[in-house]
Amino acid sequence: MRAGGGSGGSVHVTTRELEGDGVINTSGGNGYTSGSAQGGGGSGGRIAVYYVVNYFVGASNLLD
Q1: Cα–Cα distance between 34 and 46 in angstroms, integer?
Q2: What CA–CA distance (Å, rounded) separates 43 from 53?
Q3: Distance CA 3, CA 51 (A)
Q4: What is the pLDDT of residue 62?
Q5: Three-state SS string across the chain, please?
Q6: What pLDDT, on the 0 to 100 scale, is given for residue 3?
Q7: What pLDDT does 31 receive?
Q8: What is the pLDDT along the chain (64 residues), one digit of tens a residue?
Q9: Burial of residue 28 (number of CB atoms within 10 Å: 0-12, 13-18, 19+)
Q10: Measuring CA to CA, which residue among 24, 28, 32 is closest to residue 49?
Q11: How far apart are the C-alpha atoms of 64 and 46, rounded to whole Å?
Q12: Other Cβ atoms closer than 10 A to 54
């Protein structure tokens, strides 16, 4: 049996100021593996950030 992982979804942020640190993450899910049959992982999602002033020192992560 093979089953693919789900996609990472989406994050949409609209703000005047973006501040802080950390990670904004839209990673996809793992695929299901049974015996030699392997399901593929889900793709990374999308991140949209709209701001006027940016003080954010973290990372954005779109990886599978």
Answers
A1: 29
A2: 30
A3: 38
A4: 56
A5: CCECCCCCCEEEEECCEEEECCEEECCCCCCEEECCEECCCCCCCEEEEECCEEEECCEEECCC
A6: 80
A7: 82
A8: 678 888 888 889 999 998 888 888 888 888 887 777 778 888 778 888 898 998 888 876 655 4
A9: buried
A10: 24
A11: 12
A12: 11
Distance, CA of 34 to CA of 16 (rounded, Å): 48
Domains of the chain, residue spans: 10-59
In this prediction the pTM is: 0.63
Six-digit token pair at 48? 């949209």
Q: With contact defined as beta carbons under 8 Å apart, do 26 and 44 qualify?
A: yes
Amino acid at 17: E
Rounded to the nearest angstrom, the gap between the alpha carbon of residue 55 and the centroid of all alpha carbons in its chain is: 21
